[in-house]
Amino acid sequence: EPLLAALSASAVPVLPVVVVEDAAGAVPLARALVAGGLPVMEVTLRTPAALDAIRAVAAEVPECLVGAGTVRSARGVADAVGAGARFLVSPGCTGGLLDAMEASGVPCLPGVSTASEALALLERGVREMKFFPAQAAGGAAYLSALAGPLPEARFCPTGGVTAGSAREYLSLPNVGCVGGTWVAPPAALAARDWTRVESLARAAAGLCAGVRR
Ligand code: 3PG
Question: Is Transport one of the keywords UniProt gives this record (predicted)?
């Protein structure tokens, strides 16, 4: 099933993005997100601990849909899927990266930030994509302007999305879900403050539930 369609249809269309420095914290982190009402987590492949984190969550917290973010190469695709990632997200897209993501058989959200990049994906039959870096590239106004000419495309805006802007994005017809680190900020992870993550997740869930549906 396409990832955005599934998240969009879920009660809480929010994708927590996490940068894990300590793999041992990944399991309690995933449990905190689940407890707060967000049973999904994108682990960015930006730290040496990322693959171990994906492995641990896939094995120990099956109720959390764990995926990999910051996938930038065919090697990243193979590493992530090998570790148990159930979806893949990339900040941008090349032909080679898209080939690898599609061949993996795992749902993916290739990144775009322009109409031409979105058209290139639509041309290949890919309708679900990440809009990155969302806030810096033009925010909700920009995404809204793409809805007219590119009605088939569905986006997950990520990059600078906050508790304050999530609702506006979610109110757009071409937004399937929103993503970001605001739910699991680096400071809370460093402090192993799972209670804080749980309460941020609950706040995100409460903020975003029922915006459109
Ligand atoms: C990403 O990888 O999607 C973004 O870096 C998330 O960024 P944020 O911290 O702006 O939410």
Answer: no
